[in-house]
Amino acid sequence: MRNNFKLISFNLLACLALLVSATSHAAQPIPANDMGLSKGSVFDVPEPKVSHYPSTAPGESSVLPRAYLGAPPQIPHDISDFLPITAQTNMCVACHNQPALRGGNPAKGTVVPIPVSHYTDHRIPHAKTGDNLINARYNCNQCHVPQSDAPALVGNSFSSKRKR
Ligand code: HEC
Ligand code: HEC
User: Whose CA is nearest to atom 40 of ligand 1?
Assistant: First the structure.
């Protein structure tokens, strides 16, 4: 009986010790206001800061560094007068469709011609490069976008050695 009593109290002590160590090792809870990308209470209605897109006219800006080799280049100039792109009007094509300039190294301020890849239908195996822009490339803003000065919500340390 005495031994049983000793065993029970030993077990109880061991359980208590386990409980204390488990609670002291528990992860610290993240405060609710720090959880989302928008810092603050979920009951707040925050006003996003106003950001600006480049207002530099085509011909006056400089090409931007590419994120990685093969990445669609970002648009360095103002495009507010060229949108929307419709079936009837595509101002981007009007300026950039310059097959004769392809392969050169465009001087600063001159149009960068639309590359060969946009005249080749990559959905067809061994497709030949034609004279016409492939319709799948017609909506330029699907891939090419200007950059606003809004700070990144989440930091990004991605880097690629080969860019162009
Ligand atoms: C009035 C002529 C003109 C129009 C219209 C125009 N661009 Fe441009 N674009 C240029 C010139 C010139 C440059 C070279 C940079 C500079 O000098 O501004 C350029 C640069 C670019 C570049 C960078 C290329 C690189 O290699 O980094 C992209 C991408 C681009 N334009 C896409 C577009 C898209 C998409 C549209 C339509 C929404 C458009 N452009 C409308 C003249 C034009
Ligand atoms: C499906 C995505 C996509 C669409 C749509 C698209 N592009 Fe591109 N573009 C790319 C990619 C990817 C590159 C870089 C690789 C390459 O050169 O093919 C590029 C490269 C370019 C370049 C840089 C050429 C150079 O020599 O530096 C210009 C200029 C350009 N595109 C203009 C346009 C215009 C104008 C349109 C609309 C008529 C357009 N693109 C539509 C994906 C796209």
Answer: 92
